Amino acid sequence: MQSRAKAMGHAIHPMLIVFPLGLLATAVIFDIVYLITDRSGFTVASGYMIGAGIVGGLVAALFGFLDWRATPAGSRARRIGMLHGGGNVVVLVLFAISWLLRRGAVDWQPGALALVFSFVGVALAGVTGWLGGELVERLGVGVDDGAHVNAPSSLAHKHV
Fold this sequence. Notes:
Layout: E1 6-7, E2 10-11, H1 12-16, H2 18-37, H3 41-69, H4 76-103, H5 112-138
Antiparallel strand pairs: 1-2
Helix pairs in contact: 2-3, 2-5, 3-4, 4-5
């Protein structure tokens, strides 16, 4: 099943998900570094990364939703896609709550509750990322129907 939303022959959703995943995971790493070093610059950076990660996640979700709508009703891919997308919505909500809890603090310093929301969010993102991998690697969602090791470039006018 090919992706519905493409740019230059490649699915857009998988190109976009690296941004929110990277930003949100790095925010958690910076929170951990802050807890170890007590340097407030890490909390400020984490707050901005969470904000950017949420925006990036919403954009990626739009293209993921378009692809999900194209999966056959009643299929395993449709069910896993719903878990993947729904779980990622929960991830964004958890990080949004963490961001809101930090917002009014001096230097965006997170309290315990803000950290819990972020840590649970990044753990859930690992699960939903695995589900996304299951969709592509196991179920072939978003993979060109004629894909093989000698397929022509996606920029070629020749279709596989």
